[in-house]
Amino acid sequence: MRSPVSDYLAEVLEGCAGDTSGANADYIPELARADSDRFAVAVATLTGYVHGAGDTDVMFTMQSISKPFVHALALQDRGLPAFLDKIDVEPSGEAFNELSLEEGTTRPRNPMINAGAITTSTLVGEPDSTLAHRWERILGGLSAFAGRELEVDEAVFSSELETAHRNLAIAHMLRGYDTITEDPEAVVANYTRQCSLRVTTRDLALMAATLANGGVQPLTGERVVDPPVVREVLSVMTTCGMYDAAGDWVTRVGIPAKSGVAGGIIGALPGQVGLAVFSPRLDEHGASVRGVRVCERLSQEMGMHLMEAPAPARSVLRESGVREVDGIGTAHVYALQGMLQFAGVEQVLHDLTEEPPSTPQVVLDLSQVYSVNSVGRRMLREAVRRLGLDGLTVHVVDPEGMLD
Ligand SMILES: NC(=O)CC[C@H](N)C(=O)O
Q1: Which domain holds residue 74?
Q2: Structure pTM?
Q3: Record-annotated residues binding substrate (predicted)?
């Protein structure tokens, strides 16, 4: 069978191809020269399979899509409190290249706007690392997210550095407030280098999938960053990733995302997929016009909006009743199923409180449970303990060690 997913993606591209509004970024001469008609979409699963349509293997530069990944590396290397000392996590509602700091402090408003991202690039590695080492860490870290060695597009890098007046102004402002302590020009060079890393739409989908997968690269199996780092990064992408269009994006698309001025956009849907689109013409917020359209369609048609919660799980209580159990005798059997989180386990605990087991022997059968989160586990353990205090004998059937 031919997978319908890639055919569907081709259909989405075709449907959005006609929109030729917007324009290539022109403040970076090399980007102005890029082929505006390129168009690609890729969806990477958490098992590492990439569905794609269009120019999925054409190279372009990451630009601001590098920001969430460098943010992740900085959090991994320094921890959240040290990071928050330097950079806030509030949406700025401003353009990405605004020369601004949070009112009354010396912190950039978030790590997705340039002021925050330039500062973030100085938080990668050890506090006393040289800028050269920081760059090695950025290159190695972003390559680990992609699952292959990335390279800098030297033409874009020098073109952008020659015209980086605004980013230099931002860096000098940051240096003036001691938010960064290194040479502002060298810091901007590192930041510009990270923006100039060459990727394909396919690479970006896999990088996004690494975030969707809790920090483990789906193809290489490497743990690139820890789950709490991913949670922080995806939260900031949700609120700040699309700059001054973030609110519009969250309501219409509802996928943690990041745009770049070369025309790429990534989206990471936790626990499901990583996606990426590429089309160089940009809207007034610096996001790809057709890229935004594709994301809107995917979100709507593939039910990917974060706030579109799955239908309430069927009861996690598969069976509750008294019967003969081998080796135990007459017992009240509670058989649970599926995925156990707060709401599901609460139902079971509620039943146990309202209608206590009708025999002194109780069997809690978890053999059909395939996952339990930490609150679900704690609640169930506590239930077992309390049933014991009530004088009941509880036999837990837990072949997969869900309660361990
Ligand atoms: N939004 C972007 O992609 C901006 C990135 C670009 N390198 C800049 O700093 O201006």
Answers
A1: 4-301
A2: 0.92
A3: 64, 114, 160, 167, 191, 243, 261
